[in-house]
Amino acid sequence: MPAPDTPPAPTTTTTDATEAGAVTSALTWRGRRLFRHGVPHRILSGGLHYFRVHPDLWRDRIRRLADLGLNTVDTYVPWNFHQPRQDEAPRFDGWRDVERFIRVVGEEGLDVVVRPGPYICAEWSNGGLPSWLTGRDVMIRSSDPGFTSAVGRWFDELVPRIAALQAAEGGPVVAVQVENEFGSFGDDHAYLRWNREALTTRGIMELLFTADGPTELMLDGGTLPGTLTAVTLGSKPDLARKLLAARRPGEPFVVAEFWNGWFDHWGERHHVREVESVVRTLDGIIADGGSVSVYMAHGGTNFGLWAGANEDQGRLQPTVTSYDSDAPVAEDGTLTAKFFAVREVLGARGPVRMPVRTPKLPPARVPLVHRADLLAGLRAVPAPTSTGPRPASFEQLGLDAGMVLHTAHPRIPAGEHRLVLTDVRDQALVFADGTLLGGADDFSVCGTGAVVRLEVLVESLGRVNYGPGIGRHKGLLGPVLVDRRIVQGWDSTPIALQEWSAADLARAVAAGSATTHAGFAVATIHVDTPADTFLALPGSSRGLVWVNGFLLGRYWKIGPQVTLYCPAPLLRAGENIVTVLELERLGGTLELRDRPELGPPEEYVEEFD
């Protein structure tokens, strides 16, 4: 007979293999309690995405999460980040080395929860799904064989890598999520069962779970018998606990995402969440043995063009470059007031090992020199051109992100005429014989009866990552009209900015003189010892920034974000080149700042309230 203070061992003789836990799995449950190798356990996890943090900083950020009082790190795996092109094998090297990331977490003494999707949301472009897949005629996130066969091939590459790092194999992976918040998307339970089987048949033996919002509708659509049900929320954990207890009696209370902050859209305000509100809700979650993942514990950055977008009544809401998310560990690693408050709630003991704030370059202002006009610079980078009667979409061109330059040669009769772009996804600049007409979709043009070189530069502002708009195509999708007449005969040239090499960038910068307000500019930063910095472009309007050939991300005068975080590993001792692609009006200065400016704050309010 066990001693009175010895916890009962989890039951393993039941028909529900997942609830009982296979004998090799680290995490099991019984009687609403979670166990790790038979010892009562509570998952205290934090969201940390390897794809949003420079690899040289992975260990630093992991240690900060450990100092926060967490025992687990969870990460999504974005399929499109690993396999942006269908004709190329998935990559797992460098920044994409998810196995190395998992091993580093284990080396720091923390467990890992992996959320492989294939859909991840995460405010990431297309919810992590490759645009080469969603551009096909397939029903995504469903039992459609066109979708599951592609996911199966991806899982063939990914899942065995995760399986080899499970706790059963001596690694740190203790749990794997089945799909992601499927109940807010669809109700194809056959697909959910397929997803679960796709994981187990490829070697996953650890705890499996689903995660959905705490509503009847979402739980109806997203849960599976025999698989632990977790919820995602920002408030009211008592109501979520009561709902789960009624629907899934005997299961432990697990919050797979506790939204202690929120993300931002361009043109809106910077979302924050008061520390007191976070502490109160977190305390309610972990009460009575509850488990939690703080989303995000450290948000990081949407480097390049990987930021996603949302939709509100047909209006696109592109996500900003920063993914700071008002997290306990800020975008640059700073330990915030929220960090110390959360640490106290979690009962962390011992000293905080990591510095509160990492070193920064001293503030400075350097000239931003305009080198080449916009169209000349874009045309200078070789790219295959598609010719057809109508403009080719991004998907038809095999382009995930960036821009497309469409060119046609209509004859416009003498007099005043309307030029209409009927369906632009997402933003366009229109030129006639090299002269900018503007950035709208309806113009008045004065024809002379001559042929006009009509050019339409279309920019994607981010692919939708949540809701029915996932997979929506990008480009000049509807006809271009002169009055009621369709302009036909187009050359479409993809501009794959995210894939540009240093040589491509150099070609663009050297394309010719600067005679307009937009185009390519450079600034030179001299650094003695590399350190973090924040870049600002006062007077500039909208565009992209590269640092030593690395695409840092998008800036936009509409805010809320003003500064772009540049981590120290992107810089080198000596001369550093910052290249700017400005689409509207270039300012004359690049500023280095020692603190971020993410915009005027607005308190986050949870959608389920």
From TrEMBL:
Is Hydrolase set as a keyword in this record?
A: yes
Q: What organism is the protein native to?
A: Nonomuraea cypriaca
PANTHER family registered for this protein in UniProt: BETA-GALACTOSIDASE RELATED
Q: Which residues form the active site?
A: 181, 257
Q: Which Gene3D superfamilies match?
A: Galactose-binding domain-like, Glycosidases
| Protein name (Swiss-Prot/TrEMBL) | Beta-galactosidase
Keyword match Hydrolase: yes
Pfam families for this protein: BetaGal_ABD_1, BetaGal_gal-bd, Glyco_hydro_35
* Beta-galactosidase galactose-binding domain residues: 522-576
Q: What is its EC number?
A: 3.2.1.23
Q: PROSITE patterns this protein is in?
A: GLYCOSYL_HYDROL_F35
Which InterPro entries does this UniProt record tie to the protein?
B-gal_1-like, BetaGal1-like_ABD1, BetaGal_gal-bd, Galactose-bd-like_sf, GH, Gly_Hdrlase_35_cat, Glyco_hydro_35_CS, Glycoside_Hdrlase_35
Q: Where is the Glycoside hydrolase 35 catalytic domain?
A: 34-346
The segment(s) forming the Beta-galactosidase 1-like first all-beta domain are 391-495
